[in-house]
Amino acid sequence: MSRALTLLFAIICYAIFFATFLYLILFVGDLNLDPLHPITVDNGPASPPFIAAAVDIGLIALFGVQHSVMARQGFKAWWTRVVPKPAERSVYVLAASIALMILFRFWRPIDFIVWNVSSPTFSGIIWLLFWAGWAMVLVSTFLINHFELFGLQQAWLHCRGRESAEPALRQPLFYKWIAHPLYSGFFLAFWAAPEMTAGHMLLAAGVSIYMLIAIRYEERDLTNLFGDDYRRYRESVGGLMPRFRRGG
Questions:
Q1: pLDDT for 65-101, tens place per residue?
Q2: Positive or negative CA dihedral for 102, 104, 110, 113?
Q3: Rounded to whole angstroms, how far apart are CA atoms 75 and 80?
Q4: Which of 6, 150, 232, 237 is least surrounded, with the fewest CB atoms within 10 Å of its CB?
Q5: CB neighbour list of residue 163: distance below 8 Å, 6 or more residues apart
Q6: Considering the entire predicted model, what is its pTM?
Q7: How far is CA 69 from CA 52, 99, 180, 208, in A?
Q8: CA nearest 155: which of 66, 59, 84?
Q9: Cβ(172)–Cβ(145) under 8 Å?
Q10: Whether the Cβ atoms of residue 180 and residue 240 lie closer than 8 Å to each other
Q11: Contacts of 54 by beta carbon, 8 Å cutoff, 6+ apart
């Protein structure tokens, strides 16, 4: 693949990812932009609850396996024998986007109401937490290099004939107090719902379990990469909840 084609491929993958990310917000928030064809966590093809739960668990597992396996260093070492290294992250981003699209397309709602907050004040607070969660996710990606995370930087540097800098252990903003603010944002976004259906709760629980597993693998990879520096950092901050340090 030529350098220009690698960059074009990365740009297309990023555009697909960003559109998928925006739709994920609408999907989780049950926000219908198309009232004639609503497909969200609480709107879609009807199925008996047990069948719906089985289908939904399979869709969550598909996303979790894809997301975790392709992120592991061993898989990357094998995969880059097939895919050019500058395009590896873009392929990962594209695969993750496709896994989410499959989840959107085949998700089966389960309408049973778990809780329903009728108070406008408390409902407004929950919606504020919902949007704060997504904002935290997006800001966190920029704090750790948004364009590298989604493959654009690798392709751009390759196009310019330059190498990526060695990874550095940095602690900007949220990372001064939380080791995994991106995951914290997702927890907020998936659980902050004024009306929680069984289907929404299944999605939130499934994604939460995936994230807790992913954190363990991610911390192992970071420890292997940064050694004692990461161990000391990890001991000084919270995992998903902030731990404030004196003078921090």
A1: 888 888 777 777 777 888 888 888 899 999 999 999 9
A2: positive
A3: 8
A4: 232
A5: 157
A6: 0.90
A7: 26, 13, 19, 17
A8: 84
A9: no
A10: yes
A11: none
Exposed / middle / buried, residue 128 (Cβ in 10 Å: 0-12, 13-18, 19+): exposed
> What confidence score (pLDDT) does residue 193 get?
96
* % the chain with pLDDT above 70: 96
Rounded Cα distance, 61 and 151, in Å: 24
Q: What is the mean pLDDT of residues 195-200?
A: 97
pLDDT, position 248? 45
Q: What is the pLDDT of residues 216-245, one digit of tens each?
A: 988 998 998 899 999 999 999 998 888 866
* CB hemisphere CA count around 220 (13 angstroms): 11
Q: Where are the domains of the chain?
A: 3-236
What single letter denotes the amino acid at residue 32? Answer: N
Residue whose C-alpha is closest to residue 62's, from 101, 113, 31: 101
DSSP 183-233: HHHHHHHHH--SEEEHHHHHHHHHHHHHHHHHHHHHHHHHHHHHTHHHHHH
Any residues with CB less than 8 A from the CB of 203 and at least 6 apart, and which?
28, 41, 56, 60, 107, 190
Question: Is the pLDDT score of 147 beyond 90?
Answer: no
CA 157 to chain centre: 25
For the chain, give percent helix, strand, coil, nearest 5: 65, 5, 30
